[in-house]
Structure formats: C-alpha cells, structure tokens
Amino acid sequence: MSDPMLSEEDELLAAELAFGLIDGAEREAASARAARDGTFARAYRRWQDYAASMFMGPGEAPRPSVWSAIEARLPANDVTRAVARPVARSTLRWWQAGAMAASAAALVLAWVNVQKPAQIIVKVPVAQAPAAPMVAVLTGKQGTVTINYDPSSGRMTSAASGLDIGAHSPELWVIPADGKPRSMGVMNGSAPEWAKVPASASSALAAGVTLAVSLEPIGGSPTGLPTGPVILTGKMTATG
C-alpha cells in the first residue's frame, strides 16, 4: 500500500517518474528527491514495480484511491467542471498517467495475441452407417404383399400373390403417426417389380409405421387419398 505520509501530488510525481512521463529539469529534480527522500523513493519503486508488472506479470497494485482519483479527474467524466473552470495541471497529469498505463496494458495484450499461435479447427467428417433396409408383409382376407425398402436409395421392391383385384389398381400407402396416408405408388398385382418411392412418402417411412393396400381405379387414386376398400395392412420393420 502507498505510504500515508505521501501526498497525492507527490504520489503522482512518483508515478510520472516511474512511467517516464516527465523529462528535463523536472525529471532530474524528481530523481534527486528519490535519492534523498526515503518515503518518495518507496513510492517511486512501487510505481516501477506496477509498470513492470504490466509486462512481466502481476505485481502489487497501487492503492484504489489512486485510480479513483484518475477516474474522477478525467475531463471527459466531468463535463460541467471542465466548462466551469480551466482544467488543472494536476488533472491533466493524472489523465496522462492513466492513459499511459492503459496504453501499456493494451500493448501487452496485443503482443500476446500476436505471439499466440492461431487455433486451427479441422472438421473431421463423421462416417454415418447406412440406414438398415426395411421390410413389411401385408396381409388381409385374401392375398399377400411383401415390401422391401432401401432407405439409402429410396427404392422399393414389391411382390403380390393371391390378389383378386378385378378392374382395379392396387395402390400402396404409408400411414404415419399423423394418420394421413401418403401414396407409395400403384403396384403390379401379378408380377414382382421395383420402384422409386415418392419423396412425400419416403420421408414418412420408418420402423413401426403402417402400410396398406387399397383398390383404386386403373392408374391410381384420383384424389391423392384412398378411395376404394383397404384390402391389406402390415407394419414396416427394420432388418438391422
């Protein structure tokens, strides 16, 4: 802590000497005083240590009242006083000392940032396992339909047996949790085939969803929803 016997003006002079803010005759006089005045010399060394700590590491900080005085005396913090009367020399000296300290600290931070190696972030792609194929066996009062679906390609193979569809087209639907059927396309009721599942339906395909086959007019439902009787149902199951 600062010596209580030293006035604020003398404390400021010791700080200016330590920070190199005075020169010529004023510096010579201050240096001479530091050589003969033990109290002033201790204050001078404290400010030297504080100045050095900005570059070398933490040291003993000056008493809080010193920085409070710097802040209180800044012209920018007291516009009314600055207009009412000329700024005192001691106020300008405190402002200069505070600016010097702040500038020194800023230079240290800038030097550290320049010396610190740049952090390089490398994004490593994470390999994702391919989605497992899914299968479903749809059954009803008569006939069977087997479905195999590959999520990675969006392709489906289907095979029907024992269906009596008459003059109709069997249309395959996926019914997700929202209960709204999405068409997976019209099937061939007499021969196995493969097809690309429409995006609107493939996004709903998941293990556990219900698949159904309805009898529609030739070519498929004209409304986008089942219009004929549902003859087969089953659940989609993951094979992995």
Please give a quick description of this structure:
The chain has 240 residues and is α+β, with helices and mostly antiparallel strands.
Structure description:
- The chain is an alpha+beta fold.
- It has helices at 8-19, 24-36, 38-56, 64-73, 79-84, 89-115, 199-202; strands at residues 134-140, 144-150, 155-161, 169-175, 182-186, 193-196, 210-216, 230-235, 237-238.
- It folds into two domains: 8-115, no CATH class; 134-238, Immunoglobulin-like (Sandwich).
- It is built from seven helices and nine strands; from the N terminus they run ααααααββββββαβββ.
- Strands 1, 2, 3, 4, 5, 6, 7, 8 and 9 form a nine-stranded antiparallel β-sheet that branches.
- The longest helix is centred in the middle third of the chain and has 27 residues, at 89-115.
- The protein is rod-shaped and about 120 Å long.
Task: Please give the alpha-carbon distance between the first and last residues.
Answer: 74 Å
How would a textbook summarize the main sheet? 9 strands, antiparallel
Global shape: rod-shaped
Beta-strand content bin: 15-25%
Give the uncertain stretches in residue-range form.
78-87, 107-112
Q: Specify Rg, calculated over alpha carbons.
A: 43 Å
Order of helices and strands: HHHHHHEEEEEEHEEE
Structural key phrases:
240 residues, Immunoglobulin-like, 2 domains, nine-stranded antiparallel beta sheet, 9 strands
How are the SSEs ordered, and which strands pair?
Elements: H1 8-19, H2 24-36, H3 38-56, H4 64-73, H5 79-84, H6 89-115, E1 134-140, E2 144-150, E3 155-161, E4 169-175, E5 182-186, E6 193-196, H7 199-202, E7 210-216, E8 230-235, E9 237-238
Antiparallel strand pairs: 1-2, 1-8, 1-9, 2-3, 3-6, 4-5, 4-7, 7-8
Helix pairs in contact: 1-3, 1-6, 2-3, 4-6
